[in-house]
Design a protein that fits this description.
The structure holds 2 protein chains of 2 kinds. Chain A is an all-alpha fold. Chain A is about 85% helix and about 0% strand. Chain A has one domain. In chain A, helix 3 packs parallel to helix 6, helix 4 runs parallel beside helix 8 and helix 4 packs antiparallel against helix 9. Chain A is elongated, with a radius of gyration of 21 Å. Chain A starts with a helix and ends with a helix. The model of chain A has no long low-confidence stretch (mean pLDDT about 90). By secondary structure, chain B is an alpha/beta fold. Chain B has a 6-stranded mixed β-sheet, sandwiched between helices. Classes of the chains: A mainly alpha, B alpha/beta. Chains A and B meet through helix 5 of A and helix 2, strand 6 and helix 4 of B.
């Protein structure tokens, strides 16, 4: 095949995918705003995302906090700035690591599961069956997941923030010999509401990205078991990349003044 | 081809292609009220595509589809839902929702339209399950715990749960043993008589076609090449039909061995 032809084909395929994703997103968001709402399914998805992800996200957060305290100690000790450890831990966790790590973990856990579930429903004609039972699959399958992702991720990240800061506290107090009350004092002094809120806004965006990617790739999967497998992979990879890209953009929006 | 003054389903000059591959090339069909039409044809001749076009799962490239006199192509989603609520469908692999117990599968249409509360819907589901010969004790099982024949029956119960005017059957006997296939055939005939629905079946199982159908139409290369009463199919005089119903290798139909 001609080289130019190949470029053209790739470009057109990209445009087609971008268009399909945009339409899917708009339609999904539209169904989130219009009744009827499937409260049972929304609730089920909320529990799946918010509650059952807690162990994974909590473990990630506690170790992130611990390693952060340890690393910044070895660095800061060279110019006697150990006092800044509490500050570094709490800002890094609430602004960046809490939302990003939780987002990536949830992408692996929830995004993959959603793509696999919806993809299987697609290849076994269950999505067609929904349509014939006069139920809009976008409304029944996609909207509840988007709503659950948008609302539960901030809560999940709030818990992750607390656990992460606690991880830093554990290492600082029990290993590095900091005074507990001083450490807590330092943490609280430097922390501002905007740090936490910006992290939670990010979490909400990440929750949307993860559920959207899971639903989109599942919904458009085809060709049996292999197709579902590919949809699952694509959902996790695209969600992870989009999380990291949008994280930069959001940080730029919040903090570049 | 019309057998009653005003057909319930009327398909005119239906065309559908996927990329360079033409699947439907001018299909014309009429199904009268209370009639049971069976479309036969080899794999890949466009039987499923025809049925999906009528249901609105695929949009045809060209042609006209009327259900109860209403043109359904390009219909607004709300109208389409209204039309679909009068239609039941039994899928080839049953397509039961595996996240829901059996009774919720059967009562799905009722629940999603908010026409019954959960307790009433459950009672109704058990009633419909009894109609297809399934015991109430199955109601709380997951569809994955059922055998293929049972899944088909639950699918049938779901298809008739809304007392539809039209039911589609997508290869109802495929993948079942001969006895279970015959039981399903009997059930379909019984159910059609009981609720007086108009039925459109696609199959390549001739025994099933003769048992279920009042009329049979044969689809070949995207066109209906023969249609007539079910008991006339054995002496249709059409060499394509003859070859198909007797399952011969020699004849005018050349099977494409590669797609």
């Amino acid at each position: 095949m001609n080289f130019l032809q190949m470029i053209g084909r790739v470009f057109l395929a990209f445009l087609a995918t971008a268009g399909r994703l945009s339409i899917f997103t708009l339609s999904g968001v539209g169904h989130c705003l219009r009744p009827p709402f499937y409260f049972r399914i929304i609730g089920k998805q909320m529990i799946e995302i918010g509650y059952y992800s807690l162990p994974v996200v909590g473990l990630t957060a506690v170790f992130a906090g611990m390693v952060l305290a340890l690393q910044s100690y070895t660095g800061f000790a060279r110019f006697s700035a150990e006092g800044a450890i509490a500050n570094v831990v709490v800002l890094s966790i609430t602004r960046e690591l809490g939302p990003v790590l939780a987002g990536l973990m949830v992408a692996g856990r929830i995004g993959a599961a959603m793509a696999a579930e919806i993809g299987t429903m697609r290849v076994t004609e269950q999505i067609d069956a929904l349509t014939t039972l006069s139920t809009n699959p976008m409304k029944y399958l996609v909207a509840p997941r988007l709503i659950a992702g948008l609302t539960m991720m901030p809560l999940l990240v709030l818990v992750a923030d607390i656990i992460g800061v606690f991880g830093g506290y554990l290492v600082a107090v029990h290993k590095l010999g900091f005074n507990p009350s001083n450490y807590i004092q330092n943490t609280m002094n430097f922390l501002e509401l905007s740090d936490v809120v910006s992290g939670l806004v990010k979490a909400s965006v990440f929750g949307f990205i993860v559920t959207l990617m899971g639903c989109y790739h599942g919904y458009h999967s085809k060709g049996g078991a292999q197709g579902v497998g590919m949809a699952t992979t694509n959902a996790v990879v695209s969600a992870s990349i989009l999380i990291l890209c949008s994280d930069y953009i959001l940080t730029e929006l919040f903090f570049s003044k | 081809m019309a057998s009653s003054p005003r057909p319930i389903i009327s398909v005119q000059d239906l065309h559908k292609s996927f990329g360079p591959k033409t699947v439907l090339d001018g299909v014309n069909l009429d199904v009268g009220k209370g009639e049971s039409l069976v479309i036969i044809g080899g794999s890949g001749t466009g039987k499923s595509v025809t049925i999906k076009c009528i249901q609105g799962l695929l949009t045809p490239d060209q042609g006209r589809i009327e259900i109860n006199g209403e043109n359904v192509i390009g219909m607004a989603p709300a109208d389409r839902e209204r039309v679909n609520s009068r239609i039941g469908m039994l899928f080839q692999a049953a397509a039961l929702f595996d996240s829901l117990p059996v009774w919720e599968n059967v009562a799905f249409g009722l629940l999603s339209e908010g026409r019954a509360n959960r307790a009433d819907a459950r009672d109704m589901a058990i009633e419909k399950l009894a109609l297809v010969g399934l015991d109430a004790s199955l109601a709380d099982l997951s569809p994955a715990d059922l055998s293929g024949g049972m899944q088909k029956r639950v699918g049938l119960a779901r298809a008739i749960a809304n007392d539809p005017e039209i039911i589609f059957f997508d290869e109802p006997t495929t993948g079942l043993d001969p006895i279970m296939a015959d039981i399903i055939n009997d059930l379909i005939v019984a159910v059609n008589q009981k609720i007086g629905a108009t039925a459109l079946t696609i199959t390549h199982d001739m025994q099933s076609a003769k048992k279920i159908g009042d009329r049979i139409a044969m689809l070949y290369q995207g066109k209906i090449i023969w249609a007539g009463p079910a008991d006339a199919i054995d002496d249709s005089g059409n060499p394509y039909v003859d070859q198909f119903i007797h399952g011969r290798v020699e004849g005018p139909i050349k099977m494409a061995l590669r797609a």
